[in-house]
């Protein structure tokens, strides 16, 4: 897990007995973390909820909310800062503001209906100008025949 600070983690499971449980930290783990560790709890059954009632350097006590007396299992995750590193941060602060390139321009607006009609008319005009004058004079059926012949000639080459 990446973090700007140095942390150690430990995981485990335990079980409530009449709504309470004392979880002892692994002695080696307790030696390398500071006393202000954090505990995350996940119940593995139906209950009123769980909370950490008390923490010490060697253990923590978990209780069920609202004075419940369940006997359910739960998982825990302990996260503590390393004891041997003081005020050290791994990542330098950086400027996260978005830098736009100098030549960036704002987005263009969508064309209006009139502009689209003018664009289509211009395309149709250019297409008509590309048809040979001989084919334009004789009518539509000849244009089709002429283009088919041109296609066949192109295919032979």
- What is the molecular shape? elongated
> The biggest beta sheet, please?
3 strands, antiparallel
On the 0 to 100 scale, the average pLDDT is 82
What percent of residues adopt helix (DSSP H or I)?
A: 25-40%
Strand order of the largest sheet: 1-6-3
Point out poorly predicted stretches.
none
Description:
The chain contains four helices and six strands; from the N terminus they run ββαββββααα. With 157 residues, the chain is an alpha+beta fold. It has two domains: 7-81, Sandwich (Immunoglobulin-like), CATH 2.60.40; 113-156. The strands form two sheets. A three-stranded antiparallel β-sheet has the order 1-6-3, with no helix packed on it. A three-stranded antiparallel β-sheet has the order 2-5-4, with no helix packed on it. A hairpin with a 3-residue loop joins strand 4 (50-55) and strand 5. 8% of the residues are buried.
Give me some keywords for this one.
alpha+beta; 3-stranded antiparallel β-sheet; elongated
């Amino acid at each position: 897990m990446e973090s700007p600070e140095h942390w150690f983690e430990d995981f485990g499971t335990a079980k409530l007995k009449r709504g309470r449980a004392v979880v002892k930290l692994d002695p080696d783990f307790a030696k390398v973390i500071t006393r202000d560790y954090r505990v995350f709890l996940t119940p593995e059954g139906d209950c009123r909820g769980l909370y950490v009632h008390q923490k010490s350097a060697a253990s923590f006590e978990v209780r069920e909310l609202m004075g419940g007396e369940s006997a359910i299992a739960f998982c825990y995750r302990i996260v503590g800062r390393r004891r041997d590193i003081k005020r050290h941060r791994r990542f330098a602060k950086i400027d996260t503001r978005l830098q736009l390139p100098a030549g960036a321009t704002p987005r263009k607006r969508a064309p209006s209906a009139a502009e689209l009609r003018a664009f289509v008319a211009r395309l149709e005009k250019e297409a008509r100008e590309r048809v040979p004058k001989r084919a334009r004079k004789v009518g539509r059926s000849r244009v089709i025949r002429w283009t088919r012949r041109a296609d066949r000639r192109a295919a032979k080459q």
